[in-house]
Amino acid sequence: MAAVTRRIRGQSLRSWMLIAMVCAVLPLLISALTGYSVYHRTIVQPFRDVMTRQHDVLLEFERIQSGFWTLSSAMNKYALTGDETYREVFETARQRVEEEFRNIEANTGADPHLRDQLTAMRAIWSRLSRDAQEVLNQRTGTEGSGVSNVAAALAVEQEFPVAANQLESVLMRIRDVSEANHARALEAFRRLEYWALAAILVSIGMMVLGGYIVNR
Fold first, then answer.
1. Alpha helices by DSSP H, the chain
2. CA 94, CA 127: separation in Å to the nearest integer?
3. Can you list the domains of the chain with their CATH numbers?
4. How far apart are CA 115 and CA 180, in angstroms?
5. Which keywords has UniProt assigned to this entry (predicted)?
6. Distance between CA 202 and CA 26 in Å, rounded?
7. 137 φ, ψ to 5°?
8. Tell me: the pLDDT tens digits for 149-176?
9. What angle do CA 201, 207, 209 make, to 5 degrees?
10. Exposed, middle or buried by CB within 10 Å (0-12, 13-18, 19+), for 172?
11. Which pLDDT value is given to residue 155?
12. CA 62-63-65 angle, 5° bins
């Protein structure tokens, strides 16, 4: 132990200054690396993932909303004219809507809120698609004439705006969740600032300690 003490006391001034500099700089380096890791892990990557996923879901829901109007128009024109072309237009639009729902299912992942919204919208779409298909399954009497049960077509036509409004409500809820996630990210950023402040204070303390060592 005495030999170790003598060896420490026998160090040159340059060695003590080097030790002091390391003591002063090391906390800054550690705090910088830790800060970057914490910032990237707790703020940047989760925030980016959530925003990207929710942005994709919003776009897909908006395309579904647009598809509703195409479906409504095709069904109405078929009901009025009996033109088989509109049945094909309806089927193409229906398949696109189904594809958008599958894309949303792939994007929601384990997000419970998005899955709840998707389940609610899926139920609305299933009912709407079924009712519209019943109208399209009606055969017209003669070429150029509409379906026999026009009242049923009108009833389904009124369902489309209701479904579009319900989808708009879903979009608003998703946007609200997105804003809440943004607020949480800002809160995490504030916590990181507190960590940075603590690191600065520690660094100052170590610099004082380094100066004390040099003065010895």
1. 2-9, 13-39, 45-81, 84-108, 112-136, 150-215
2. 13
3. 28-215 (1.20.120)
4. 17
5. Membrane, Transmembrane, Transmembrane helix
6. 10
7. -75, -15
8. 677 777 888 888 888 888 888 778 777 8
9. 105
10. exposed
11. 82
12. 65
The DSSP string of 52-78 is HHHHHHHHHHHHHHHHHHHHHHHHHHH
Three-point CA angle 156, 134, 167, nearest 5°: 40
CA distances from 142 to 74, 86, 145, 150, 152 (A): 19, 16, 6, 15, 19
pLDDT score, position 18: 67
Residue owning tokens 């647009």? 66
Q: How far is CA 198 from the centre of its chain?
A: 32
Q: Report residue 27 as tokens.
A: 């906390």
The Cα-based distances of 64 to 51, 59, 94, 178 in angstroms read 20, 9, 9, 20
CA distances from 30 to 15, 35, 170, 199 (A): 22, 8, 45, 9
- Supply φ then ψ for residue 126, to 5 degrees: -60, -45
Average pLDDT over residues 79-93: 87
CA proximity to 128, closest of 163, 76, 89: 163
CA separation for the pair 143, 81 (Å, rounded): 8
Which residue from 72, 74, 63 is spatially nearest to 104, judged by alpha carbons?
63
Residue 45 exposed, middle or buried by CB count within 10 Å (0-12, 13-18, 19+):
exposed
pLDDT the model gives residue 133? 86
